[in-house]
Amino acid sequence: MQHRRLGTSAIVVSDICMGTMTFGSQTDEAEAFRVLDECFDAGINFYDTAEGYPVPPDAKWVGRTEEIVGRWMKTKPRDAIILATKVSGPSHVWFRSPLRSGMTALDRRNIVTAIEGSLKKLQTDYIDLYQTHWPDHDTPYEETMEVLDELVRAGKVRVLGCSNETSWGLMKSIAASERIGGARYQTIQNNFSLNNRRFEDELAQVCRKEGVSLIPYSPIAGGVLAGKYNGGARPEGARFSRYLAMEGRQAAMGRRFVNEKSLASTERFAAIAAEHGLDPVTFAVAWSKQHDFVASTIVGVSSQAQVAPILAAADLVLPDEAMKAVDQVSREIMYPMG
User: Fold this and answer.
1) DSSP 8-state symbol, 102
2) d(CA 41, CA 337)
3) Which of 196, 252, 291, 325 could connect to 337 by a Cys-Cys bridge, CB 3.0–4.6 Å?
4) SS3 152
5) d(CA 161, CA 190)
6) Mean confidence (pLDDT) of the chain
């Protein structure tokens, strides 16, 4: 397992990170422990969760994921784990947070309330990487960054990160941190995959110039790149099989991930993977890791059976021929996810 630094911080993580957003909804605690144990034994030291997990957001189970992760961490040396969690930003159009009556924001009260709740559920006295979960462009960045800096100074948080942020928002936050002389974001967690390369348009340059690391989520495009939706298939129990049968936000998200262009590119990528003797999941994870602005790729599973092809990407470097073939597909089928 290779290791990389988070931004310019002192924290070094495995270049594969296990995400936990299904733990407590799709995945029960016993299965979650099996997944986490296998990853730990394979050399993964980086684990990502959030106060708003599991998904989909629902008051009946919000917070369960951090509780499960906290109980699992008690079985391991705390300093052997790099733990990341998130404070919920404002509810956006496509969902309403079940936390704090849906009135989440990145102001002082919300951040302080969130960190205390996460520390309690995770049964730890510090978080290695504390991230803002969705941006709050209507709250002054000075206020957000000031209270986050206080958490670092108090020893409750080691380093800071953001997620689902824009180029404008990331630069505004860095400028605010410089003005107040406080801790700044070292990471950004955004969607990035073979089917969604928009991060390369602008944010990659910001990361390179400002020393911020991307820790991409959804490298398998929500399971689409595994090929399970190819040919119009709708596997029972799969996330987008459910979403495409719904209305509103879920249906819109389903169509974003599963559409004519995304399925066409997925088939092309699978063919490239096959030419190199690789499972399409292994290929997708390896491709995600193979960028200079990426520190660690966040993967997610709902069962232990899905772990093996992900771990097969550890130490795997795709040849230039494969990377060029991917670029050719991306030029011919541009922005499959819009």
Assistant:
1) G
2) 35
3) 196
4) helix
5) 11
6) 96
Q: Half-sphere exposure of residue 148, counting CA atoms within 13 Å on the CB side?
A: 31
Q: How does pLDDT run across 110-161, given as a tens digit for each residue?
A: 999 999 999 999 999 999 999 999 999 999 999 999 999 999 999 999 999 9
Rounded distance between C-alpha atoms, residue 137 and residue 189, angstroms: 17
Closest CA to 214 of 193, 232, 230, 235: 193
Q: Residue 235: is the preceding peptide bond cis (ω within 30°)? A: no
Catalytic position from the list 47, 53, 141, 185? 53
Q: Is position 53 annotated as part of the catalytic site?
A: yes
∠ CA 29-32-34, nearest 5°, is 115
Kind plus residue range of the DSSP H or E element containing 93: none
Q: Are 232 and 266 in contact (CB under 8 A)?
A: no
Edge-first strand order for the sheet with 127-133 is 213-214, 185-189, 157-163, 127-133, 82-88, 46-48, 16-19, 297-299
* Average confidence (pLDDT) over 180-195: 98
